[in-house]
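Class, discuss our next protein.
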Amino acid sequence: MTLKIRIDDSAPPYEQVRAQISEQARAGVLPVGYRLPTVRGLAESLGLAANTVAKAYRALESDGVIETRGRNGTVVAAAGSAAEREAASAAQAYAERVRRLGVGSDVALAAVKDALRAAYEG
């Protein structure tokens, strides 16, 4: 696993760690079951505070990208399982909300596309 933290980047270090691990897991560079370094170990190798890496790991676990197995460490989770369920749930909640607001499906879909473009393309 190779991570690069750029101090001059506008994204905070924990977000850079989260995004890079997430991208590598989704691309298959980090296969399902790959054991990640400990929080302290990764923090040391990147020159970051342990709390910074812990925050990234918590976000990744919340996103369903990784899972912590107690003494067995933190590993890359099965692709998509929890993350896809969470995305489907969020999409359903959004669809119900815009319908209640009286927003048409074309406008709602355009809003989603704009939001995704902003999130993925910066």
